[in-house]
Amino acid sequence: MKKTFIILSALLLLSFNMNNLAVKAAPLNIQLTEGVHSVKDLKLVENKTYKIQNTSAGTILMMRIDGDQQIMESHRLLENSPIYNIGPFRYVDKIVILGPGTVTITE
């Protein structure tokens, strides 16, 4: 009887703690301006495809460069461009943004 009470109390205590666990996933919305950006510093997930869009009035050139400094992908993003898929990335990749304005990376 005593063991049963202890086990039920432990299960009851664990069930109260499980209700407090909340996973809060914030949507990814990264704004990038002109420059060289590391995939690792941007905290993008490896082997995942993302979406990129020019949200400014100017034309922007986006390039993805791998660890061997080879251009793997490039997009010419006109003003208020449609959404393009980019990636999948590796942590050694870099994203180069050339031109005035900002681009937005989302999931």
Automatic annotation (TrEMBL):
Alphabetized UniProt keyword annotations: Signal
Signal peptide (residue range): 1-25
Protein name: Uncharacterized protein
Organism: Clostridium beijerinckii (Clostridium MP)
